[in-house]
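Exercise 7.
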Amino acid sequence: MAETELERAAMHRALALAETVRGHTSPNPAVGAVILDTSGTLVGEGATAPPGGPHAEIAALRQAGESARGGTAVVTLEPCAHTGRTGPCAEALVAAGVARVVYAVDDPNPVAAGGAQVLTEAGVDVVSGVESHAAASGALRPWLHAVRTGRPFVTWKYAATLDGRVAAADWTSRWISSPASRADVHALRASVDAIVVGSGTVLADDPHLTVRDGDQFATVQPLRVVLDRRHRIPRDARVLDAAAETVVLDTAVPRFGLKALYDRGVRHLLLEGGPTLAGAFVEARCVDEVVAYLAPMLLGSGPAALGDAGIGTLADAALLDVESVSRLGEDVKIVARPRWVGPAMEE
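Solution. The predicted structure, written as tokens, is:
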């Protein structure tokens, strides 16, 4: 039986709930859940808590209480069937007496998959694939990619002039982007697990790499990561202060660094390094999303946004699919995804 209009509307609410916990659930997925009672009224909702806390379904069931019995659970990801820090969500739904479960995306994690089968065997009506594209391209996208590839989803962010310069010839770069763009960057930082730069960026700019809301620091900060193979960063660098946790990796190889971060639970990584590090990530095909802030400004010289990426001819250019173009103050924001060919980048 296909989903109803009420269930599709509930899925839209579940997707919105999942967005509220982006960057705060890893290594668990950012999931949203809604409980409808037998009349189709929303009686419970929830989103995945930080690791160790309840999953979305459990939070929604607690809010619904006895009203969940005979009702419908609408979830953005197939309910899990394994016991980790918390119990299996599929069994919790059965125990609550839920009669029907509607979800968007199958769980690709072999450890947790199988919830749909558990529900079906318990006599629960299960409908899958509802708003699957919206779910897979939303809050779940980084986690799904990480589970399927064994490395974090990488977003490369940069701000540049219209002629592609990230700094002037004398390396001055503040401020190329507008205040609106800089505020948007802080929102982007708040949605990821970690931010990575190279030692060259630390030496040149001494960045803080924190999330701020206006003049205030955010309550939860992403992990700060510095790739420093030559041990060059000074002890008084701002990135080493107590504002957030920092990891310094003794490597310049993106794939080694990504594996180490995946093992630490990082599922979404924001690349904020300079042209050299960006070039290394592009050459290794380890960029999954590009977020560019372009200012209406021309410099004519100075460092370009992307350094050597191992591309010697136009035929080898990294092609991008543009997902969105928007205005932020005087700037233009472009979000695009590389069109990599080969299994390493498939989702």
